[in-house]
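Anyone opening a protein record will find just a pair of labelled lines. A complete record is shown below as an example:
=====
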Amino acid sequence: MRKAVLAMATGLCLSIAATSVFAAGVASLRGDLANDQASQMFDKKRVVTKEGGFKRSWELQPPSIPHKADKERINLSENTCLRCHSEEAYKKEKAPKIGDSHFLDAMGKKQTKVSARRYFCVQCHTTQVNAKPLVENVFAGQ
């Protein structure tokens, strides 16, 4: 029994030592700062706006937001995106209409109001900024 416990303890020590040796070559996006140290503040990036919107990289990609959206309010009592993108307003505002899929409930039944699952637009739709990538990206869209 003592030999088994000693063997397990030795194995645990060796695995901890090996992990720290292998982890020495790993770097995080924070750099070499410890987690309890403050990282450098990043430069605020400007939102890229594009008349007519951005091309999608794959067929079912949610469209990117081609305008600033930092002043939009989306909460339980209001969604200011709907002022331009609702069924009633999109023609007058010359904006894309909210997708028909946004009116389907969890069972696929069409509703008259935007589904709660699709109400918070910025869960899927994002603004774009002209930022340097953090890591190499070789993705090529359609």
About this structure: The beta strands are 47-48, 128-129.
